[in-house]
Amino acid sequence: MAQNFQHPFQCIHFVKRKNGESRNVLVASAGARLFSYAAESGQRLSSWPLDGADIAIPDANGAGSNPETEGPPGKKRKVDPAEQKKNGDAPAKKTPAWTNIPILTSTPDGEYLVALTGEDKCIRVFQIEEDGSFQQLSERPMPKRPSAIKFMENNDILTGDKFGDVWSMPLIPSAEPRPAPKTPAQRSTAIAATNLTVHTARNLKSLEMQINMKSQQQEHKKASEKPVFDHDLLLGHVSLLTDVAFASLPSPDPSSTKRRNYILSADKDEHIRVSRSRPQAHIIESQCFGHTAFVSKLCIPEWAPELLISGGGDPHLIVWKWATGELLHTVPLAEQGSEADAEGQPKEIAVRGIWAATRGADSQRIIFVALEGNPTLLPFTLEPNGSMTPHKPIQTSGNILDVEVHMNTVLVSVDCIRAPGSTQEWRSATSTTLLEAFQLKQGTTEWESVSDQMLGTINATGTVPVGLTEGAEEKEKEALNGVLYGLENLRKHGWAGEETVF
Amino acid sequence: MGATAKKQKREVYRNKVAAATSAEVGDVALADLKLPQKKYYRQRAHANPFSDHLLKYPLSPAHMDWSKHFPAFVNPDPTQTNLAGTRKLLRDVEVVDIGCGFGGLLVGLAPVLPDSLMVGMEIRVQVTEYLTNRIKALRAQQALKRQMTSTSTPSTPAPEPSPAPATASETNPNSKPATPDPTVDDSEVFPNSLIPGGYQNITAIRANTMKFLPNFFARGQLSKIFICFPDPHFKARKHKARIVSETLNAEYAYALRPGGLLYTITDVEEYHYWILRHFGYGTPVEKGQGPEGGEEGLEEVKREGSAELFERVSEEEIEKDECVRVMKDATEEGKKVARNKGNKYVAVFRRKENPEWV
Question: Is A409 helix (H, G, I), strand (E, B) or coil?
Answer without folding.
Answer: strand
